[in-house]
Amino acid sequence: MYIFNRNKLSKISSVFIGITMAASVMVNSVMAADYPTAKVNTTKLNVTDTTVKVGILHSATGTMAISETGSIQAEKLAIAQINAMGGILGRKIEVIQEDGASDWPTFAEKARKLLVKDRVAAIMGCWTSASRKAVLPVVEKENGLLYYPTFYEGLEQSKNVIYTGQEATQQILAGIDWIAKEKGAKTFYLIGSDYIWPRTSMKIARKHIENVLKGKVVGEEYVALGDTQFGSVINKIRLKKPDVIYAAVVGGSNVAWFKQLKAAGINSKTQTMLTISVTEDEVLGIGGENLEGFYSAMKYFQSLDNANNKAFIAEFKKMWGPKSVVGDVTQAAYLGPWLWKAAVEKAGSFDVDKVVAASPGIEFKAAPERYVKIHNNHHLWSKLRVGKWRSDGQADVVYESALIEPNPFPKGYQ
Amino acid sequence: MMKAMYQNMLGGRSGMIGLLILAAIIFLVLPLGLDLFRLNLVGKYLTYAFVAVSLVLLWGYGGILSLGQGIFFGLGGYCMAMFLKLEASDPESTKIQTTPGIPDFMDWNQLTALPWFWEPFHSLTFTLIAILAVPTLFAFIIGYAMFKRRVGGVYFAIITQVIALILTILIVGQQGYTGGVNGITDLKTLMGWDIRTDSAKYILYFINGALLIAVILVSRVILGSKFGMLMLAMRDKEERVRFSGYDVADFKIFVFCLAAMISAIGGAMFTLQVGFMSPTFVGIVPSIEMVIFAAVGGRMSLIGAVYGALLVNYGKTVFSESYPELWLFLMGGLFIAVVMFFPNGLAGIYDKYEKKLFTRKPRKGSASAMSSRTLSDPQPGPVRDAASPPAKGMGISNQPVN
Amino acid sequence: MDGYTTSELWSIFAMQGFSGLSLLSVLLLMALGLAIIFGQMGVINMAHGEFMAIGAYTTVMLSKVALEYGFGNYYFLFAIVASFGVAFLVGYLVELGLIQHLYKRPLDTLLATWGLSLIMQQAFRSTFGAKEVSAELPEWLMGSFKPTETVDIPINGVFVMGLTAVVCLGVFIFLFRSRWGLRVRATTQNRVMAGAVGINTKKVDRVTFALGCGIAGVAGAAFTTIASTGPTTGSLYIVDSFMVVVFGGAASLMGTVLSAFGIAQAQSILQFFMDSSMGKVVTLLVIVTILMLRPEGLFAAKVRR
Questions:
Q1: Residues of B in contact with C125 (CB under 8 A)
Q2: Of B6, B140, B207, B378, whose CB neighbour count within 10 A is largest?
Q3: Which ranges of chain C would DSSP assign to H, the alpha helix?
Q4: Interchain proximity A195–B172, CB inside 8 Å
Q5: At B246, is the secondary structure helix, strand, or coil?
Q6: What is the rounded distance in angstroms from the CA atom of residue B135 to the CA atom of residue B155?
Q7: What is the rounded CA–CA span in Å between residue C115 and residue C56?
Q8: Nearest to C106 among B149, B328, B394 (CB)
Q9: pLDDT tens figures, B61-72
Q10: Does A61 reach chain B within 8 Å, measured CB to CB?
């Protein structure tokens, strides 16, 4: 792992100046003097004439470190880029990083520390639903501001949270529509890890399949988190012979799931599978050859072919090494600091209430996923893409939807 | 009468001093010296101290190592959380749900009515009774089944561990009823009293501290009584106690239930102070970590256990802030060092120095013998014995191999 | 049954049997090592899972090397031996530095080895990274064969099963048909007398412990065929393995084999008919209940404690 230091930062900063990224956002000539601290900070946040403090709260240790490291890297990259452009309202962003250690109470504890002791102006953080649920009451109580990057189950909307990942309907409906149309699929087998996100996702998927597509769900299965025995599940699937396996298996189980599928002779030649839990990060562990030909429904893939994304990938690799990969959540985490910057500049203040009020309608046209916009419900308008995995661990994007409106409380799907 | 009370409850002079110092630290030094954020953390650590104290009774004095104290901590915590969650889920604040008036996670899991076993938790009285009774009853069932059949030692440890595992899988798997991996979150008020405010945090901290001191006092009374002596005897020579006509199993069941109840109080206080409860506190890892709190503090010292819980958790917080990589190494090293070099933990080290300090002062014969027995045993002898039932007693090493 | 034909039910039966087998193999290999250490020496080794992880990491590393030099098809057999060797060596050192001081204190050994497991997990994390890694399996291990139209049997499951049988046989021969085994059994039954007749009991302890760890290493090699390896892989199986040993009767090898078979099949079949977490809960509950009724396990000589 790279250790982020000042030298590196300044090196990166110098590289940045001429980058397209900077050009696409308004060229920054704002001086701190135009925005006196007393005016932009009326709520005793940690904002000085030259700096503003921002918290990063992810698991750097423990079981979730595997997934969350990418988000930390993306957030640091965005912040380094923003600083290289002159910061926000003439103030450089200083990062206070805390480790949630894959432990939900620790997340709550550290969030409180960031908000009460460090008085950060915003927190980029959390990954799992459980960590967000633990942090949410703290953020609401202390009136903080959290940018949450992961695609998640929806059913939530908070004044104090901006959700930069997809809520469930944005990820599920269009993907199922596509696969039903493309493959003529009528029968589905749903399988997920046993916690709130897969369960809610499958609930939505089932309603959509049964009520809208008039298809049939022939099986629904949940495996314990971390479970590595899929023999029984695979046998059930084999007997039900579904047209599509719809999977939301996460973490270490994911690897066992795909390995055992392959060992059991189930591969993309004989079986169609659409997953909503596999990004480039997971593929590293699973191995492209075990995954080749299966589909993922995400809003972002590293292979997206547009100028924003190419510049982003180049910078990411420059900062974190040529071997690093960027998955859906990593990209969503990258959006957080930029969306915050835009909102602060629109509000002309760091005060949470004003930033929140300014947030709806904020657009970010330099997003690697091309274009996002904050909805009134604090989620993002985004597209849904279906990628077909190659053996080298990258995906060919085979389908791209129109912009989808976020709908965290979908009527008819609850 | 007064004197007996003084001996038993306060553990004589040195016991009283120890207790006063602890009380002063909890009620004066920490609240004055720390800001609310840190104090709230200490409050959380002190809830673990309940478990550590219960383990001193169970393991240090009873010679029974339970690797499942997280079960009882969790049950107590979940009972409290269920009450608070119901209060937080009034129809008004949950009107966005398909079925208003039930906890949000139930709604997400397509439940349309409150499960029957949640109903009684609308009542605070019932909840308070449940916090004490449910874990105790559960402990009674486990204890009765195991001790009556003379299961002990490592078998007991392993089986309690498996029960902790079963309970975790159940809580995670039955998320419609329990909140699953996320646990029961977003708890707000207790009978309309907002537990998230600063003043509430202070009040809860002091209640927590007072309960902890009370638990220590009660434990001392029990250890100082004839029962406590029998426990020690049982630990060291179980057969002899049995041959003297006592039913060893009954005593073990009692102390196991008592330990469960103490742990449950800690769990309930945890929920109140931290504002949520999740399966991470029920499973194998927290259960065994709680053993190390007791071991570091000194498995024979009620007060030491409190310091152990404070110190290990403080270390965890500090190290995970600055050197997260090192923390597991340190924690692992701590387990090994305590077992190999400091079997009596902090209390053992303290006793060594205390002895040196007081050698010039003549001790009052019986009083000091009494106190040293109830408070903390300076001689390593019995402790080694506690941990080393004769190999024959294990029932594994002298069987023919088939 | 809802919508299954008779022939399908037969296929379920056959395939479920085999899906239980791969779980059985890993469980049994883990439990064999534990049974030797726990049953013969009375030591509770909570770090046993980490010895399995050592074996798994060894296999993964060797697969990387093998791919580099293009003998990816044959390395796996060598990897099994290497996994055993590495785990054996580490076990030997651990006994030397830690376990030998704690023989008379089983509960303390439990705590100390738990500490050891934490240290080992963090060591894995620092050395190999937090990400899960997986071994490139040789081609001949992948895929399945189809005896009938509806039955698929994974080849790696069959291979691992065979491996397990060989290891079991090896352990049996070692313990009951060799000089070393005689010494081990003598030391177990009466340490003082064994010492008196000239057996180096310390050395016997050391080799027994290391042997148990080595078998856990083989379990790790087998494990790489079904899942990926991470720093906490070992902790997934430790409680289950203890259950197998205790359930089977601590000192009985035959009991261990049968109880591993029973537990794995029960879990696999229950998970077919219930969801996966309930299947596991029911299995564990049944075991605990049986253990409460019969604390000495299924196959132990009746000894009054």
A1: 325, 328
A2: B378
A3: 6-34, 41, 48-69, 75-97, 106-128, 155-177, 179-189, 191-196, 201-223, 233-248, 253-273, 276-293
A4: yes
A5: coil
A6: 21
A7: 21
A8: B394
A9: 988 999 999 999
A10: yes
The pair of three-digit structure tokens given for residue A154, joined into one six-digit string: 């929806």
All residues of chain C having their beta carbon less than 8 Å from the beta carbon of residue A235 are: 12, 15-16, 19, 272
Q: Which amino acid, C246? A: V
Q: Given this model, what pLDDT does residue A26 score?
A: 47
When scoring C243, C258, C292 by the number of chain B Cβ atoms within 10 A, the one with the most, hence best to mutate, is C292
Helices B302-322 and B36-55: crossing angle, nearest 10°? 130
Q: Is B183 an interface residue toward A (CB < 8 Å)?
A: yes
Both structure tokens of B22: 């602890």
Could you tell me which chain C residue has the CA closest to the CA of A232? C272
Chain C interface includes A222 (CB < 8 A): yes
Instruction: Judge whether B61 and B300 are in contact, CB under 8 Å.
Output: yes
H or E segment to which residue B368 belongs: helix B365-374
At residue B358, the pLDDT reads 58
Give the integer Cα–Cα distance in Å for B105 and A200.
Answer: 10
Please check whether residue B51 is in contact with residue B73, taking contact to mean a CB–CB distance below 8 angstroms: yes
Q: Could B397 and C42 be called an inter-chain contact, meaning their C-beta atoms sit closer than 8 Å?
A: yes
| CA dihedral sign, ordered B297, B298, B299, B302 | negative
pTM: 0.84
Quote the CA–CA distance of B367 and A233 in Å, as a whole number. 67
pLDDT score, position A404: 94
Q: Are B135 and B76 in contact (CB under 8 A)?
A: yes
CA A369 to chain centre: 12
Q: Are B266 and B277 in contact (CB under 8 A)?
A: no
Give CA torsion, residues A74, A77, A82, A87, to 10 deg.
110
With contact defined as beta carbons under 8 Å apart, do A18 and A12 qualify?
A: no
Are C157 and A236 an interchain contact pair (Cβ–Cβ within 8 Å)? no
Which among A64, A86, A82 has a CA at the least distance from the CA of A74?
A: A82
Q: Which residues pair with residue A66 across a beta bridge?
A: none
Question: Quick check: A59 contacting B, CB < 8 Å?
Answer: no
Distance from CA of B278 to the nearest CA of A (A): 8
How sure is the predictor about A14, in pLDDT bands with cuts at 50, 70 and 90?
very low
**Domains of chain A (ranges, CATH numbers):** 6-165+305-381 (3.40.50.2300), 168-298+386-400 (3.40.50.2300)
- Give contacts of C268 with chain A, Cβ < 8 Å: 229, 231-232
Distance in angstroms (rounded) separating the CA atoms of residues A42 and A354:
10
CA–CA distance, A404 with A371 (Å, rounded to integer):
12
Q: How many H-runs (helices) and E-runs (strands) does chain B carry?
A: 19, 2
Query: Which two three-digit tokens encode residue A303?
Result: 């292979």
Q: Does A267 touch chain C (CB under 8 A)?
A: no
What's the ipTM? 0.86
Q: Which of C122, C254, C305 is opposite residue B150, by nearest beta carbon? A: C305
**Domain regions of chain C by residue span:** 20-238
pLDDT digits (tens, 9 = 90+) for B1-45: 556 666 665 566 777 888 889 999 999 999 998 888 889 889 999
Q: Which residue in the set C20, C230, C275 is minimally distant from A252, CB to CB?
A: C230
Average pLDDT estimate for C18-38: 84
**A235, two tokens:** 């046998």
Nearest to B267 by CA among B96, B17, B79, B28: B79
| CA gap B168, C273 in Å, rounded | 21
Helices (H), B237-344: 238-243, 248-274, 284-297, 302-322, 324-340
Q: What whole-number distance in Å separates Cα of residue C171 and Cα of residue C32?
A: 8
| B199 interfaces chain A, CB cutoff of 8 Å | no
> Which residue in the block uniquely carries the two structure tokens 């590595």?
A228
A173 closest CA partner among A388, A410, A398? A410
Question: Chains A, B: CB contacts under 8 A, how many?
Answer: 94
